[in-house]
Amino acid sequence: MSSEIIKVPDIGGSTDVEIIEVTVSEGDVIAPEDTMITLESDKASMDVPAPKGGKVVKVLVKEGDTVSEGDDILELEAEGGGEDDAEKDDGAADDEKEADQQPAKQQKSDDAKPAKEKASGGGKRTVEIKVPDIGGSTDVEIIEIAVAEGDEIDAEDALITLESDKASMDVPSPHSGKLVSLAVKEGDTVSEGDVIGSMEIAGEGGEDEPEGDEASDESSDAAPADDGDSDSDKEGDEAASGEPERKEIRVPDIGGSENVPIIEVAVAEGDEIDEEDALITLESDKASMDVPSPFKGKLVGLSVKEGDTVSEGDLIGYVEVAGAAKPKNAEAPKREAAPSGEKKSADKQAEAKPSPEAQMAAHKPREGKLVHAGPAVRMLARELGVDLAQVKPSGPKDRVLKEDVHAFVKQAMQQRSAAPEQAATATGGAGIPPIPAVDFSQFGEVEEQPMGRLLKMGATNLHRSWLNVPHVTQFDEADITDLEAFRKSMKAEAEAEGAKLTPLPFLVKACAFALRKFPQFNVSLHPDGETLVWKKYVHIGVAVDTPNGLMVPVIRDADKKSLIELAKESVELAKKAQTKKLKREEMQGGCFTISSLGSIGGTAFTPIVNAPEVAILGISKAQMKPVWDGSDFVPRLMMPLCLSYDHRAVNGADAARFTALLSQVLSDVRRMLM
Ligand code: CAO
């Protein structure tokens, strides 16, 4: 078995592209198509697959290296490798080898460079830099200028960044040299051929260089994907005189990927489409790109659908073109698909290259925010429904890695499982951002204790209600001076019957009475949001503070029970709650809740409605206050009433009536007999 050197295949003419990941190690046994390295430039990202299987003898690159087509990646002991496969280090063998590895699609990138850069000559000369072929877009905004007058610039350095509604792209410098003038500024709009500035570059033949050469160089610089102005003009003339023509549209050079799924078809038969309009979007684990139309015209046939898989040269459909104009990159794929190692002329090669806009489409930010991520990461994100713009990148240059996508999903799942109810309600259109996690230990000593089941349940219920119910709280006061006198007078008698007569049973009785008078408080909203469920019974819940959390036992048919019965039952249920003896059914069926903090203190609070009930009464501590009786201030024991209600079911005027009635009946309990 012999080893061979695996080289960087055709990478669409890009040079010095950074290796952002090396996915193989020495000793690994890899299969054909396994990813060896991932490349990412500011223009594109791609996985480089192994052209054949075998054992990795040596990895010749590392993360951070930059490579171009033909550079060594690794030494591979190929499966069943023989003499024929062996790599020789001379150029001809290299070419042959690359032809083996990939269908030869393009020339070496060097050939694509402007001719004058390759030539060396004495002296300096100044050349104009123009906006190259930008896929037919016109008046495209310059969103960034990356250079300044006087800068020494390398060929391919970004000069300006353009952004249209279809894509964003950097315009690279066609030469190395000094920028002597800059003719544009941020915010300007430009079209193909517009002057960006001028550069002083190393001359080729000094001042003797013929004008014609200069002009043709300029045109090839300015329009690398075009056949040249004169050709275009000719074609234009033909178009003007020609009959409508049916043109095939085929999948262009997609970097050697095969059977790539179509994830979107952006057009339909009969559509009028412009040249460069996206027809389909392809996405594999190695690349993602929009395939633009090479023609302007009417789509008269569509041969693919979402989910189909395609390779270079496959038929996408037919466009009826008004005239016989030759497209900029039409039919190149068919020619390019031919597996031959022959060199192609510069214009053919330019045709094969996807237009800059098409290249950029693969990497354009979907949500208006630039996200750096490799194609495999993009595909993973799409499969998991993750918006990459929301993922925190941890890779170099803020690149999103697969681990980041996984971490994002994990965090989302943890949040959901930690509080499924909250998550469900919080996402009910609210889109509430989570409270950020804080490491409190950085501020002092802390101890973490898991919340008990009851606390967690309470938290879930309160959160759900808080988010779902539009709350309003109505405040009022009840003069309970007489009630207190009566209660105290009855206390011993009640105790004899085994009841502790606190204000609570009076409150339950008063609320039951008010619910009968105002049945609109004794309802629940049906989940359909359109129906009210009117309850014919009056079951009242009482919030009980227990060491484990809040519980709400329910007194059934409170309207039918005596004060003594209510006193007994409330004490009994409170005890059960505090000793964890409450049964599930003793906490169900409530129509209305009373939350009394009267024995503790406070002047008012805003209780949270115990949904699906629609109202809750909060009670604060009664206090002796001076009350004007019409002629004098008299000391009266005033009890604060705080009625929170669901404003979807209850209107404010009714709430005020409800608390006013409570105030009346608590001031004079005889009213409840009326
Ligand atoms: N104003 C003044 N005094 C009050 C009062 C008020 N509004 N309410 C109760 N008191 C007095 C009682 O009269 C009693 O005094 P006496 O012994 O002299 O009669 C004393 O406070 C203690 O009452 P209690 O707490 O034993 O009984 P209760 O019927 O008032 O309350 C219960 C029972 C279960 C409601 C209460 O123990 C409790 O758990 N309250 C907390 C509820 C809670 O946490 N709510 C918040 C929920 S979140 O919205």
Q: Tell me roughly what share of residues is in helical segments.
A: 25-40%
CATH superfamily of the domain at 472-673: Chloramphenicol acetyltransferase-like domain
Terminal CA distance reads 106 Å
Strand content: 25-35%
Biased composition (Acidic residues): 68-98, 205-240
Subunit structure: Forms a 24-polypeptide structural core with octahedral symmetry.
Pfam families: 2-oxoacid_dh, Biotin_lipoyl, E3_binding
Family: Belongs to the 2-oxoacid dehydrogenase family.
Briefly say what this structure is:
One of its GO terms (biological process) is pyruvate decarboxylation to acetyl-CoA. The protein is an alpha+beta fold.
Verbal overview:
The protein is α+β, with helices and mostly antiparallel strands and 674 residues long. Among the domains are: 2-78, OB fold (Dihydrolipoamide Acetyltransferase, E2P) (Beta Barrel), CATH 2.40.50; 372-416, Irregular (Dihydrolipoamide Transferase), CATH 4.10.320.10; 472-673, Chloramphenicol acetyltransferase-like domain (Chloramphenicol Acetyltransferase), CATH 3.30.559.10. The protein contains 16 helices and 37 strands. Strands 27, 30, 33, 34, 35, 36 and 37 form a 7-stranded mixed beta sheet that branches. It has a 4-stranded antiparallel beta sheet with strand order 1-8-6-3, with no helix packed on it. Helix 11 (420-426) packs parallel to helix 12 and helix 14 packs across helix 16 (652-667). The chain is elongated, with a radius of gyration of 39 Å. It starts with a strand and ends in a 7-residue tail after the last helix. Bound molecules: oxidized coenzyme A (CAO). Oxidized coenzyme A (CAO) binds at residues 502-504, 542-545, 550, 574, 595-599, 607, 619, 621-622, 639. Residues 372-409 form the Peripheral subunit-binding (PSBD) domain. Its EC number is 2.3.1.12. Residues 68-98, 205-240 have a biased composition (Acidic residues). Residues 68-132, 184-259, 323-367 are annotated as: Disordered.
